[in-house]
Amino acid sequence: MRVLVTRPVEEARDTAAKLERMGHAPVIAPLFEVRYLKTADISLDGVQAVLVTSANGIRALALHMSARDLPVFAVGRRSAEVARALGFHHVESADGDAGDLAALIARKLSARSGALLHVGGIHVADHFGALETAGFVVRRVSLYEARALKTPSLLIDSLRGNALDAALFFSPRAARIFAERVRAAGLDAHCRRLLAACISAAAADEILALNFHEIRVAARPDQEFLLGLLPVENGAPGL
Length: 239
Hints:
By secondary structure, the protein is α/β, with parallel strands linked by helices. Helices cover 33% and strands 23% of the residues. The radius of gyration is 19 Å and the shape is elongated.
């Protein structure tokens, strides 16, 4: 299958490599670019652990601190892998969504032991009200922005030429921007032959009006589950 990947370039490369192992042909046409934000020194006084809800969050934090001994609790396997690759010594993954991460924190940590630092982007939703209700202090810092780009010509040409079989949507925002760009280009009808694989029901909701041939939703908001919505081509080893 020819599969559209609209993630920022660094994430898209990882996704493309996995798609190729599954026997698919990735078509990388980023709708976003990640820009790390300049910010004042981040205070770690009284912080017992870092909460990470994206790989970009831990990459951005690594630019602002040299120490790697603070425990990192990551939402999923990919963000945990990136944290370990950056040298953080104590990394745990919730292997799920933000709710699973909050539940992991509640099991593993005590609110009396210090604050939690959530590093994320400026468009990241607030996921940790339940932890605050349980008595945890959650400090939030925005260290990057996923900034929307001009519509890639490759995306337009691939849709217009019916050169795609499927599209991946890793967030509701990505799905919403895709839908806006496709409608603006008058290419709605070209989605009717495509499979859409969505990270969540919220992402799927953003593309309902495009009338994809089929919309599938991952059982868990994780790249492995998302890619698992696609068939493995004959002879390919899979994920």
